[in-house]
Amino acid sequence: MKQLGTLYFFCGKMGAGKSTASKQLAMEKQAVLLSEDEWISSLYPDQVASFEDYLKFSAQLKPLVKKHVQSILRAGTDVVMDFPANTQKLRKWFLDIASEVHASHQLIFLNLSNEQCLRQIAKRRKEQPERAAFDTEAVFIHVTGFFEAPEASEGFNMLELNGKE
């Protein structure tokens, strides 16, 4: 029987480094990297003006992305998803992607403090001025209100990485 790919995905507050870590992991694993930000900006250019817009477009993407990722996993290729797994509901979606095709998975939890994330967001604002409208402390506080840290009871193969102070 053909070996299935492994699904890798990330949980972490805004600014925790999910995108950077996903790029590094995809290179290490020679895996397919899928970025939600890239899909949304390509499919819905200049249409994301608020967090609510992001949520709407993210929800529209999910059925297509799920089928696409499952096809890649069935072909035996690892997939790294730069899509946030920051709530129990979102993490269940990732688990369903893998379990429905009997593929293995790994949730990587970037467990950084609010202060560490805000420092990284401030740095990113300088390096990527086009993100300045969204990379603010106010947006961080709003988005962090929805964050749910993963729990063992959710049944994930999880690797927790703590930030270095």
TrEMBL record:
SUPFAM superfamilies: P-loop containing nucleoside triphosphate hydrolases
GO molecular function: ATP binding
Xref: InterPro entries: P-loop_NTPase
Keywords linked to the UniProt accession: ATP-binding, Nucleotide-binding
Alphabetized Pfam families for the sequence: AAA_33
Name of this chain's protein: ATP-binding protein
Organism, as annotated: Ectobacillus ponti
